[in-house]
Structures are given as C-alpha cells and as structure tokens.
Amino acid sequence: MTKTIKAPFRYDHVGSFLRPQVLKEARSKFQKNEITYAELKKVEDEEIIRLIEKQKEIGVLSITDGEFRRSWWHFDFLGGLEGMEYYEKDHGLNFHNLETRKEGIRVVGKIDFGHHPFLDHFKFVKEHAGESTVKFTIPSPNMLHARADKNTEIYATEEELIEDTIIAYQKGIQAFYDLGCRYLQLDDTAWASLFSDETRAKLVSEGKDPQKFMDTLQYVINESIKNKPADMTITMHICRGNYKSTFHSSGGYDFAAKVIFGGLNVDGLFLEFDDERSGSFEPLKYVNRPDLKVVLGLVTSKFGKLEDKESIKTRIHEAAQYVSLDQLCLSPQCGFSSTEDGNILEEDNQWQKLSLIKEIAEEVWE
C-alpha cells in the first residue's frame, strides 16, 4: 500500500503550481485597473477548479489551490495578519545571481489573527475538492520575525513580537481547523540560515548567536502548534529559497539536525534533497520519533528535465539507512511556483514529475 493512513502521503507535493497564462494576464490587468477584483476572482475561481480536477486526474492525494490567489508564498499571508502591512520596498531579496521583486511586509500595529482572507481561500478549495484531502499551505510563524520590518514603537523587543506572533498562529490554526482543515503545512526558509558557515557568519554579523537563533526557531514552531487538535496534521517544509528557479542559500542539515529531526513537534518534514546543496542523508539519524514522517524532496521543481526513476529509488534506499523506510515519503523538493513568477519549466513538466513521483512511490512502498 503506497497510501499512508493520513498525511503526509507516500507521494506528496509542496503546494504551489505554475500559474496558467490566463491567470497571469488577469492579474496584470487587475494591477493596471483594467478589470475589477470580481473579474479577477472569477478567473482565479475557474483556474483553481481546473487545477483541482487536474490534480485528481494525475492521482495527487493532497489537493491544493496551487496558491493561485497569491503573489508570494509568504508575504500575502503575513501581510493579511492584523498589525501587518504589505508594501513596496527599495530593494528585493538577494537570490543566486538574482534580486527578487521589491516587495515586503512591515509591522504597523499589534499582531493578531482576525478574519484573514485565506480562510475564504481554504473554504473554496475544500468545497470543490469533494472527498479528497485538502492541504493548505501558509508561511511558518518564523517567517514573520525573519522577514518583517520591525517597529520599535509598537514592539520594544523581539520577544514581545514573537509572543504575539505565536498567539496569532494559535488562533489561525484553530480557525482553519474549525473550517475543516485537517492538513496544514508551514513553509519556512529561516532554518536555512543555519545550514552553512557563510549563513551562520551572516547571523553573527547581525548580532545573532546561531544556537540561540535556532532555539528561537524551535520555540516558535512548537509553541504555535502546541494546541493543535489531535486529528489535524501539521507538517513543515524547510526551504533554501525558490524564485524563478534560483536559490537563496545552500548547506546540509548537520548544524541544526538534532533540533529539526529530534526537537520539533510537527507531524512531518518536507526536506530538500534534490542536489548537492542539500548535503547528505546522515543527519536523518537524529529522527527519534516513529510517528514522524520524512518527505524526501528528491525531484527538483526548478527545471523540467525528468529525473531517472532508478536513481531516485536508489536514493530513497540510501536515506532508509538512517531512518525507517516506513517513515519516508517522496515529493518535489519545493513548489513549482513559490511566487506568481513561477520556475523555469512548462506546465506539462510539473505533471510529468508528479506522475513520476507517484510511480516511484508505488514501486518502493508496494
């Protein structure tokens, strides 16, 4: 049996899909005030319904809306929290040989979770997914204090901001649960700051101690999810950056392995292992819970070339030297379109990769 009893599934995915051209055009027209929000939403609705049916056709077990209503994987959600604002900055984030769009978030009031627009987004996909399991993705609470421009008049200390963020996420998790969400994924790039000598040195240059920074990341996750209902699955995707097929950072999990694999109370971890930037599987030896699912991101979402099936199967068995094969699952290493810009591949490529993942999983976990 390849299908596990509950999520994450033997063959899964991170959440985002390439935006279809008709949606890109509608969003562009909306930004130019050439169409109304109602007209944009109509296109979004139609394309999300089409996407849901395509996922079912391919055999995807965790149905998402592809993040089609979002411009960014994180800023849209964080900017929708009370006390936060989405705005245009002077500079974007520096990726490998590329600068992102000049947009960001900032603190403008006390952080809280109110009637967030993402609640309606979840209701829509759940309504149209039928009996299928819906996975809903939101940025990790760590991303707020990692990416937001602070306001010392509102929050005198980082600790005060963190505590309000935790409370807001506890409320948000319960709100999604009350609407029927049973599979929630937290996406987090903050951990990647710990993965290389270079990024740890950057933390030090900013006046941060890498060990204390890691302790804070762990604390924020565990506190934010500590009240989750027993029948709700919460996973986390740890990412090194994904913008137009580029990356933000590199390095293996070694420095943070004991905390990531032995100290986080999530139900599953989606991990990037698609190239040499991710290091070896050895840190998986610190997995100390038989109920923790480890989803190996062995298939890249950055480029269209299809991986060799036997090579992926070999790598799965290499990972199984450190953690039980029964605890492993398979997915792409990241979403196909973490921002509306999308990665450099075609729509057909993403479906071919998901079909390959399903085929491999059915052969490995038969």
TrEMBL record:
EC number of the protein: 2.1.1.14
Class of enzymatic activity (EC top level): transferase
Keyword Transferase: yes
InterPro entries given in the database record: Met_Synth_C/arc, UROD/MetE-like_sf
MF term (GO), any: zinc ion binding
Record NCBIfam families: PRK06520.1
Protein name, entry field: 5-methyltetrahydropteroyltriglutamate--homocysteine S-methyltransferase
Organism: Lysinibacillus composti
